[in-house]
Amino acid sequence: MNNTAFVFTSVVLSALLTLHTSPGAAQAMAPEKSANAAAMSDSRFIITNIQDNQDAMILLQKAADHSTNSRIKELAQQMIEDHTSMLYSLQELNAAGAGGSTQNALGTTGDAHIQASKLEARLSGASGSDFDTMWVANMLIRDAAKFDELSQAKTSATNPQLKMAITEALPIVRRHRSQLNMLQKDLAKMAIQKKKQSVRATTPK
User: Fold this and answer.
1) Which domains does the chain have, with CATH numbers?
2) Whole-model pTM above 0.70?
3) CA dist., res. 95 & res. 72, Å (int)
4) What's the pLDDT tens digit per position in 71-107?
5) Are 77 and 64 in contact (CB under 8 A)?
6) 134: buried, middle or exposed (CB in 10 Å: 19+, 13-18, 0-12)?
7) Alpha-carbon span 101 to 159, nearest angstrom
8) What pLDDT digit, counting tens, does each position of 24-35 carry?
9) Looking at residue 97, what DSSP letter applies?
10) How far is residue 128's CA from residue 194's CA, in Å, rounded to a whole number?
11) In 3-state terms, what secondary structure has residue 101?
């Protein structure tokens, strides 16, 4: 009797364990968990990018106010308008609870925000061509990273309105990268020409 009872108990326990750990049982919970995770991902993206756009506008205004290069000033003003439009779209999504959250983005202190604050401080200590070179180089780095982030988010985002906002933002960021890249090349040429002129001026005749 003892052996029979032991075998029966073992069989029952094994069946229960199989039921609770079967793929079917796990899959029954997966859709809800997956949807919640996707919504949280959308929400984090919106909040983070609201802050990123606000940071970008501060750096762009810095160039509009302090650059000595008219082309940089013009580009900075154009980019401010573009980022204002992108920021407005994200704020509307956030206010509507896209991604399952209406959390306010103000006060976000992610790595990108910290780096933007550090860059602003460095720019405050620069002037002339040094300011222009530093600003263009760092904005290129920011936009390259942002383009990659948007490209990935376009695939992973689940909210249709967010997907649309990302789709609209991608060509804008691509254009910014192209314009900044051209400016960087022009600044490099100007620096070489300036150096040559300086050498000629100090070379004995």
Assistant:
1) 39-202 (1.20.1260.10)
2) yes
3) 34
4) 999 999 999 999 999 999 999 999 988 655 444 444 4
5) yes
6) middle
7) 12
8) 444 544 555 555
9) T
10) 13
11) coil
